[in-house]
TrEMBL record:
Pfam families, per the entry: LacI, Peripla_BP_3
PANTHER family named among the record's database cross-references: LACI-RELATED TRANSCRIPTIONAL REPRESSOR, RIBOSE OPERON REPRESSOR
Keyword Transcription: yes
Keyword Protein biosynthesis among UniProt keywords: no
Protein name: LacI family transcriptional regulator
GO molecular-function terms, A-Z: DNA-binding transcription factor activity; transcription cis-regulatory region binding
Length: 337
């Protein structure tokens, strides 16, 4: 009974028997450019359709040392902008003819290396990293195995990378607040310490201080909605209140906005303005109408796949670098002057 239930794919040998041709004729039929007569091709295709046969691409890839598998390494892939970036990446990779594999992992060196070894063990032709800060051993292992790496969201000198214009957008947020007459500026970030969040926090504070503003910084435990609620509670616990807040991503901004509306008497944007970062779809919802900087997941995914393609065709080329600067999307949480 156990043997009868075991998965058994239709084989090329079965197709050959039904079509009345040789096994090699089946192989040639499904090999682009191979020589096979029209009559034989028709018999093979008819038999394959009847049996439900499909070519074993995995076996072909192993033989050709080209699996077409591309790993996507991410931490908490379901959250915020990251989820939309992964969706755009998988779509772009499939359009290229690749097979995307998502590895949901943590940010420790051990977890990242375990994900990488899994992908190398399955002969993935490349890895795209959108979370964490890979250790030096990660790059060394990839280099020894000739596996291209593309990092999205920050600069990495050891790999091709697509970075967001975090500092440009965050500095501009401070300048927009200052131009509107705001003088007590706060930034809401997180203790997760990711390179992108840290870069946004630092750039905003530097621009705000350069403009003569009083600055405040609070951080939630994570870069998510709950993190925004917790950070807002700390921000409004006592002392002077800010008249404008920059949130390092939209999820944090949503938590901050809900706290202000439910736990304070301040009005948005009349008493306090807010700017977020990412422009996830929820930012346009009537409950938020958040002014934010838009990262376009489709553009970032396309740039990453272009870097990957160039690396596969030119293994010894200099490291590729793309920087995508987000654009301001103005809604009701803050209207620049």
């Amino acid at each position: 009974m156990k043997d009868e239930k075991r998965m058994r794919f239709v084989s090329a040998e079965q197709v050959a028997q039904l079509a009345g041709v040789s096994r090699s004729a089946v192989s040639r039929t499904f090999t682009p450019g191979a020589s096979v007569s029209a009559a034989t091709r028709e018999k093979v295709l008819r038999a394959a359709e009847e049996l439900g046969y499909h070519v074993n691409d995995l076996a072909r890839g192993v033989l050709a040392n080209q699996s077409r598998l591309v790993g996507i390494v991410a931490t908490k892939p379901e959250l915020g902008f990251r989820a939309h970036l992964i969706a755009a990446l998988t779509k772009a990779l499939i359009a290229r003819g690749s097979i995307p594999i998502l590895i949901n992992t943590g940010q420790t060196e051990e977890e990242l290396l375990a994900a990488q070894k899994m992908l190398i063990g399955h002969r993935a032709e490349a890895t795209i990293i959108i979370s964490g800060s890979p250790p030096a051993s990660f790059f060394e292992l990839a280099q020894r195995n000739g596996q291209p790496l593309v990092v999205i969201g920050r600069s990495e000198t050891e790999a091709d990378h697509v970075s967001a214009g975090n500092s440009e957008a965050s500095g501009r947020a401070a300048e927009l607040f200052l131009a509107a007459g705001c003088r007590r500026l706060a930034v809401v970030g997180s203790k997760s310490g990711t390179p992108s969040i840290a870069e946004r926090e630092n750039a905003f504070l530097a621009a705000a201080k350069a403009g003569g503003a009083e600055t405040m910084a609070v951080r939630g435990p994570e870069s998510d909605y709950d993190g925004g609620l917790i950070a807002a509670r700390d921000l409004f616990a006592g002392g002077e209140k800010p008249d404008a807040i920059f949130c390092a991503n939209d999820l944090l901004a949503f938590g901050v906005m809900d706290f202000i509306r439910r736990e304070t008497e301040l009005r948005i944007p009349e008493d306090i303005g807010l700017i977020g970062f990412d422009d996830v779809p929820e930012a346009s919802w009537l409950s938020y109408e958040l002014t934010t900087f838009r990262q376009d997941p489709g553009i970032m995914a396309a740039r990453a796949v272009q870097l990957l393609e160039h690396r596969l065709q030119n293994p010894d080329a200099a490291r590729g670098y793309e920087r995508v600067v987000p654009e301001l999307v103005t809604r009701k949480s803050f209207v620049p002057r």
